[in-house]
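User: I'm preparing a small set of examples for a lab meeting where we compare how different chains pack in three dimensions. I only have the primary sequence for this one, and I'd like the structure in token form so I can line it up with the others. Please keep the answer compact; I'll paste it straight into my notes.
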Amino acid sequence: MSRNRRNNRGLVYSTDIGRTCPECRRPIDQCRCKRKGANAPSGDGTVRVGRQTKGRKGKGVTVITGLPLGQADLEKLGRDLKKRCGCGGTVRDGVIEIQGEHRDMLVEELGRRGYSVKRSGG
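Assistant: Understood. Below is the structure token output for the 122-residue chain.
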């Protein structure tokens, strides 16, 4: 432990308290810096709308990535976009998946909502 203090790296793990945050040096469940946006999505600020068929037995879904929203807002936007397209879909790991080919409509709708949008893929 004294070696870590000399190198200014700080304590990363302790058998007493478990994992600690490298920023505030508190246990992970008591971390104060996670409220500063440490869990905010990262990216270049561009929302990408693409199409995927991988792992879906050839059936295509429209995939929206890069949205700078929290989980609750992402689910609300996903619900609104599914209603706009008139189909089903899901929100998984910060990505909105809409069933079917709706790239053009979604690019238009997200642009209308103020996002910088690019159509990705072919």
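A couple of notes for your slides: The domain at 47-119 is CATH 3.30.780.10 (Translation Initiation Factor Eif1). Strands lie at 13-14, 18-19, 47-52, 61-65, 89-92, 95-99, 117-119.

User: Perfect, thanks.
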